[in-house]
Amino acid sequence: MTDSSFLLCEPTVYAVRQHYEIVYITAEPGAAWVLIAGKRYTDQMCGVVRSGSCTHHVRVPAGELDLAGRYTVCLARIPERHSYFPKTERLFTAEFSFRPLPAEDIRVYMLADTHSELQAPIAAAGYFGSCPDLLILGGDNGNTASNPESVMTMARLAAAVTHGEAPVIYMRGNHDTRGAFAERLPDYVGTDCGKTYFPFRLGRLWGVVLDAGEDKTDDHAEYGDIADYTAFRDAQTDMLHSLTREAAQTCTPEAEVRLALCHIPFGVIETPFSEVYDRWTAELNRLGVDLMLSGHCHRLDFVEPGSTSYGRVMPDYPVVIGSRVNRKIPESYAGTALIIGSDRMTVRFTDVAHRILQEHTVPQRR
Ligand SMILES: [Fe+2]
User: Fold this and answer.
1) Of 50, 122, 246, 315, whose CB count within 10 A is highest?
2) How many angstroms is it from 312 CA to the middle of ligand 1?
3) Mean pLDDT, the chain, as a whole number?
4) Separation of CA 112 and ligand 1 centre (Å)
5) Domain end residue (candidates: 49, 74, 97)
6) Prediction pTM value
């Protein structure tokens, strides 16, 4: 028998590289681990199981969770961590089922720019009538990252939509970089060892998450002295170069769908960093990306491949700008549903009443 009352909300199963990172947040600190088919995976740092935190990250092999279809999150209350013979006072456990991505008709929903709103975005993400196969948190999910509750927005959205039973991908938005808790944000979401950019692989879906940081230059008065995204973007250029080089290993050419995810739709909006984004677009073209998903602009738009670009390199793929937001009327929120079939993808912008506002079709190249 399990009791999930030690959890602030249900866990989130983030897809990162070829792993799942199970993130859960507890009411009190303790040592954390996840059980899959009897095997124990711990929240550890260089072999030391962390016991002093309420935020827990456990990385597990995706194939093992896909096969098992269920997992148990655990928390051991260890009130005094003695140097010798520390004792667990109480062990809490909660079990969850899990559905890997299906091979066909993959149902994806993206919630971008929720800005700490919960009710309307959760209603919109109910478009499929049941949990989507994959939830994408498209950035600016909290309004700022000024306190623990604002960075908890991602966990609360994911819990309400997936109940810990389906994979989630998080891309950071520029508002998620603002405020005193921004440096703690990786404690609350799935990242690649703290990095908010990484490739991922889910069944026949391959993709890369990019993080454009802020939309203005680092010396802008809005940021004071706390923005330093130049080297951060360059590191992502290097990652894309590496992915292109490794493409033969990371992308099998058959039956693959390739996505790029970035909160800021670089390349199709005006930016002071067009040279960097030209390099990113060129690499994504080389990687054979089929579709890019973005938010940021608070509007719904489907930008055809090769259309107006603020850089010199045209994307070969369409770019979805996928959230309608009116901060004065939260119930006007609309998000993006994506259905990945065997020979095409269907993009639908849908509102809280599940009405289809626009529909676009993307043929699959492979
Ligand atoms: Fe934004």
Assistant:
1) 315
2) 23
3) 94
4) 9
5) 97
6) 0.96
